[in-house]
Amino acid sequence: xxxxxKIAKGFMNLFETGxxxxxxxMKGIVPVxxxxxxxxxxxxxxxxxxxxxxxxxxxxxxxxxxxxxxxxLAAFMLGNPMSFTLGRFLxxxxxxxxxxxxxxxxxxxxxxFPHINPGxxxxxxxxxxxxEKLGLNTMDLAIRYMLVGILMNFxxxxxxxxxxxxxxxxxxxxxxxxxxxxxx
Length: 184
Prior knowledge:
Blueprint (H helix, E strand, L loop, with lengths): L1 H26 L1 H19 L1 H11 L3 H16 L16 H14 L12 H13 L4 H34 L13
Helix pairs in contact: 3-4, 4-5, 4-7, 5-7
Organism: Acidilutibacter cellobiosedens
Protein name: PTS glucitol/sorbitol transporter subunit IIC
Keywords: Membrane, Transmembrane, Transmembrane helix
């Protein structure tokens, strides 16, 4: 009976720990994420959706803007998963590469911009907790994580361009490199 009671106590302790963690987030990270979301929606409202659309179209012209600037702007302003919608302005040929770059960016920028992907913030926070226990600065970690991420996201997007070319050739498919944006 003592073993069953010990297991039950451990089981309840798991939920108590989860509840305490949740309350900590409600006092710390949740208000920050909420305020960042309000700021981003305000910026989009002030700029106008049409201008944001023009920025996305202009970004499709070369690999640096496609896999560095557009993913950053999309993730920063729209967050995950809405940021993927800006890919609609890209030609079909570049959509897989944009997705590859953006999907990674939504993770690697979480330390500095938690509003981008709050659903996966626990990964960064778990690593940051270890850094804090070592007495190190978590902002240094967040900046390094983002800088390495930006470089690797760009490389990932560009490599996916080559992969797309290979698959198109292998499957004898021609994907357009011209943007075809239609009003939705």
